[in-house]
Amino acid sequence: AQFVAARGTTILAARSLPLGALRLSERHLHHDPIHPAEYARMKREIDRALMRVMGRLSDLAPRAAFVAVGGSATTALAMMRRGSTRSQRDGTLRFSDLRRIERECLARTVAERRLLPGLPPDRADIIPAGIAVVLACMTMWRKRVVHVAGGGVREGAILAMETRD
Description:
15% strand, 8 helices, alpha+beta
């Protein structure tokens, strides 16, 4: 997972952490449905990783918007919309939206999650971990809203290279 604080086109701070949804799922989530103890262990690992390296970003967070890109954020947005506007990959998620989606996912097996509106079946096994990371960031930085941008990190890097020429 990559974290970037920027003002306009100037990057103020950047950090990369081993908090990808697949990595966390493979490391921690071994029961189906997910056992509360293993989910709690995963959340503690996420919190520890964020606390260790996020100092500079945390200093900037109170005055900044929180924008998420990538699969977990766009999937959560599609789930919040119940799949009805899946082609629209930009939007806003409230903390309460993510908590509701988290509860829905944790109450189901992977097979049952595959049937949830807006959730691509191939992400049903890893979405709980992805949502846990977004919720941990929101909690740490005291954000009630996350803005979801449908473009990914690679798209941002390409756009940045284009503007330098």
